[in-house]
Structure formats: C-alpha cells, structure tokens
Specification:
alpha+beta, five-stranded antiparallel β-sheet, extended
Length: 333
C-alpha cells in the first residue's frame, strides 16, 4: 500500500491537471476515504501549496489559478509528449522568436526528471530522425503573438505596425479574427476597416501591437485557416494556370494542396451516367512552371490544360523524356 507521502504527492499531481476535483473523485483516485483527502489537502496547505477549498454541490479542491508549481510533476507519457512537442515545434519553425526558449525549456524539464526517465527520454530524442529539413521561417515574437491572440479571443481591435514584403511600413487598425500556423509561418486573419476588406498578415512582419478601446463582432461562419490557404493560392505570381482534372477535390488536393491550388468540382453533364467520374476546375498561381508536369503525371488522372500554352510544351517534353528512358536498355558489357 502506498505511503501517505506518496498519496499526498499524487493528490498534488491530480490538482495540477487543472479544474475543480470533488472530494469523492479524489477519494476514489487515491483509494482513501473523504476525511483522509481533507487531511492530505491540509498537508499541502502546510507546505505553502495554495490549495483552495470550493464549497457547494460540485465543490472540492483546486489549485490557486496562475500558481507555478515546483517541482514539475509529469508522468512518463506527459514528459515524452512535452519534449517531443518542443522538438517538433523547433524543427517545423513553429516557435516564438525568443531564440533558445524551446531549448532552455526542454533542458529545465530534463533537469527535474528522475534519472531513469531522463535517460529513457534522451534515448528517444537521440534516436529520432526527421524526413524534412528544419524549418527556417521567421517566428513571431511572443510580444506580438500573445496580445493578438488575446484580441482574437476578446474581439478587441488592435493597432499594429506592419512591414510589407516590399519594405513599406504602415500603421494599421485591425479587427483580428484568428491565428493560423501554416508551413512554418504564422498568420493572422483580420478585417482592415480602413481598406474595407479582410486581409491576411504575417506575424513576423508585425510589431508594436497595442489594444484599442471597444469591441467588434466577428463575421459568422468564419474559417481563418481556409482564408489563409485561399489567400496563398490566389496571391499574384508570374503564371496563372487553369486545368480541368478528372477527379474529386480530395483526390486532386492529395498532390496539389489547398495552399497552392483552388479546386472547384464541376457539375456532371446531363447525359452522364451515374458511374461517370466528375471533373474539376483547378486554378493555380505559380512563379515557375517547370515543376508542374511531374506533379500532373503523379496525379495519374486525365487532365486538360486550358492555360498557359507554355505548360503544354513542358508536359510534352517530360512525356518524351519518360518514353525515351523507358525504351532505353543497359549497354552491353
């Protein structure tokens, strides 16, 4: 049977998970009676742990909000989840611009773990390999990310200083709708009242965030992630490509993600049978065309090129190279 001190620490761990824990729930988890739970809670209070007693039908115990609890108490699974999350965030570029914050946080967690668990987790991290290179996108400063997130939650207007891609600087008032992380970059979707339109802004180009008085009502049915992907897919580039592809949007997006292509499924002709495959219109804006023929080949679906004509020549050239390679045999030794 666990010693009382072990049960007291288990009670602390349960309270650390947040929310109000009823006395009956805690008694069941600790395998003791309710009177003993109250005694254990008193032990924690004697140790200056801010345990609050909540009265009422659904009352119980909780920790004082905002209290930082030393030492950090994590189960094996929780410690692995936190460390893997820190590593993945740093590799993908989804980290704040405080430089080594992820590394120092991971080091602090490892330092307070028991040696048995620390060695096992270090073994996992040391043997872990990634198939993609580390993200190199500029991450947002926490002084930008946190107040914008607060404004999104509270529907508060903000004033920001923004540096556009061409270096132009401006001060804007925004009604922020949501924050989106995509391909190693952070974006905020917002209404720009001065311009009278919805816009998408990169967080690493924002500085000087300041909350403004008042509030706003966000539009109904808003999807910030879809807004960002649509904005990226329709951004001005050198070539505008239009295709007709036989297949569903899901099949096409498997090779042409939503951040690259806009896919619109077309209605079937009136004389088409029930088993006839549907076609879709695909619009892309790209800076180069040379990568598209291989992607279209990988779709393995019939397609028609509407524009530009340069793409037709590139597809024909790829087909000829593939045919030439398929017919080629090894030289005689």
């Amino acid at each position: 049977m666990p010693r009382p001190i072990a049960r007291v620490l288990t009670l602390l761990e349960l309270l650390q998970s947040g929310g109000i824990r009823t006395v009956a729930e805690l008694a069941g988890r600790l395998d003791v009676d309710e009177r003993t739970v109250r005694r254990y809670a008193g032990h924690l209070i004697d140790l200056d742990v801010p345990v609050e007693s909540v009265r009422g039908r659904y009352g119980g115990y909780r920790l004082e909000p905002g209290y930082r609890m030393p030492p950090l108490m994590l189960s094996d699974d929780e410690a692995l989840a936190v460390l893997l999350g820190l590593v993945a965030g740093r590799r993908s570029g989804l980290a704040t611009a405080t430089g080594t914050a992820g590394e120092t946080a991971a080091a602090k967690i490892r330092r307070v773990l028991p040696e048995r668990l620390r060695l096992r987790l270090d073994a996992v991290l040391g043997s872990l390999a990634f198939t993609a290179p580390p993200g190199e996108a500029d991450a947002p400063d926490s002084a930008v990310l946190l107040p914008i997130a607060d404004a999104v939650t509270r529907h508060r207007p903000i004033s920001v200083r923004y540096t556009a891609a061409d270096g132009r600087r401006s001060e804007r008032t925004l009604h922020p709708h949501g924050i989106v992380a995509h391909s190693g970059r952070w974006y905020v979707t917002a209404a720009d009242p001065a311009a009278g339109e919805d816009r998408t802004f990169r967080l690493d180009r924002i500085s000087g965030v300041r909350a403004l008085p008042g509030s706003f009502e966000p539009p109904a049915g808003l999807d910030p992630a879809k807004r960002v992907l649509t904005g990226l897919a329709t951004a001005p580039y050198r070539y505008e490509v239009t295709l007709r592809v036989q297949g569903t949007a899901e099949q096409i997006h498997a090779r042409l993600p939503a951040g690259i292509a806009i896919v619109e499924e077309l209605p079937s002709p009136d004389d088409a049978g029930p088993e006839a495959e549907r076609w879709a219109r695909v619009d892309l804006r790209v800076e180069r065309l040379d990568w598209l023929p291989a992607v279209l080949a990988s779709l393995d679906r019939p397609f028609v090129i509407e524009r530009p004509d340069e793409l037709r020549g590139l597809v024909v050239a790829l087909a000829e190279r593939l045919m030439d390679s398929a017919r080629r045999s090894l030289p005689h030794e």
